[in-house]
Amino acid sequence: MDVDQREFRVGTGSGPRVAVRDYGGKGPPVLLLHGAGGNLLHWAAVVPRLAAAHRVVAMDLRGHGRSDDAPWEWERVLDDIEAVIDHCGLGSPAVVGHSLGGMLAGAWARRHPDCPAAVSLDGHRAAETDPDHYAGLPAERVRHDLERLRSLFTAQTATAAQPMTADQVAALLDQQRAFAAATGIDEEEWEATVRRGIAERDGRYFLRPGPGTTSALRASAGFRDCLRGLRRGGGTAPRRPGHQGTAPGPRGPARPRAGPPDRRAPRPRRARRRAAQRLRPRDRR
């Protein structure tokens, strides 16, 4: 189905301006959050299906797509999300995220435990996580493969810092169109997505996110293992007025949290099942 859409930028107080695409639609609101290195166009194939029964909005996270660059701090990124929700009049939307966006969806639920739903699609741990998380694999193989992965990511971060020429951009787009054709992805949609991740400054072209955002994410304990916060709950940062729950405090890299603090003994299975049912979207039609 064709979806009416409009794109604009939202100011976030003292923070960056973030790019937003409002796809309209009638029904319960849904906010879509992309993964690290992505942008809002990664949801292009999903939006028409959601917009048939929901009000759908997607955004570029800070440092990504057409949003401004700004230091990556989990609480400040949640403030960006809050500004978009307020600007668009979404009230209390379901927040759906992929990878990094899924981690933020969990953190949003931690800040707003009354949200109707928080959906995380593979938003648990970065591939460059601790060796213990690769359960069942030989320790030496894990160590070796993680070293290779770290070297690869370090090289990618360095590459992102280097400007590209117009010819290099054209070659990159040709490569990505071939990838789309080989995997059955719509070539025009995929090219538009890739183009959105390239910024032009003074006749030079740079990949987004830049090395600042990428390095901050790689150094973040919450990006390496979001599940630790989900299991432990609680936190050390002071609570902000109007917000329930906390995020980790200044003693170390910020970690996104999700769910209320677990100060009680584990609940019986039936009680856990009832609690999970209450977190499902209210309109399931």
Structural notes for this entry:
The radius of gyration is 20 Å and the shape is globular. Strands 1-2-4-3-5-6 form a six-stranded mixed sheet. A two-stranded antiparallel sheet has the order 7-8. With 285 residues, the chain is α/β, with parallel strands linked by helices. The protein has two domains: 6-129 and 221-278, Rossmann fold (3-Layer(aba) Sandwich), CATH 3.40.50.1820; 131-215, no CATH class. The longest helix is centred in the middle third of the chain and has 22 residues, at 139-160. Helix content is 39%, strand content 14%. The two termini are 18 Å apart. Helix 5 (166-183) packs antiparallel against helix 6. It contains ten helices and eight strands. Strand 5, helix 3 and strand 6 (118-121) form a beta-alpha-beta unit.
Summarize the structure.
The protein is an alpha/beta fold. 39% of the residues lie in helices and 14% in strands. It has ten helices and eight strands.
**What proportion of the residues is helical, as a percent range?**
25-40%
Report the biggest beta sheet as strand number plus sense, adding barrel if it closes. Answer: 6 strands, mixed
Computed CA radius of gyration, to the nearest angstrom: 20 Å
Series of H and E elements: EEEHEHEHEHHHEEHHHH
Number of strands: 8
Shape: globular
Q: What is the CATH superfamily classification of the largest domain?
A: Alpha/Beta hydrolase fold, catalytic domain
The level-1 CATH class of the largest domain: Alpha Beta
Strand content: 5-15%
Number of helices in the DSSP assignment: 10
Provide the CATH architecture of the largest domain.
Answer: 3-Layer(aba) Sandwich
What strand order characterises the main sheet?
1-2-4-3-5-6
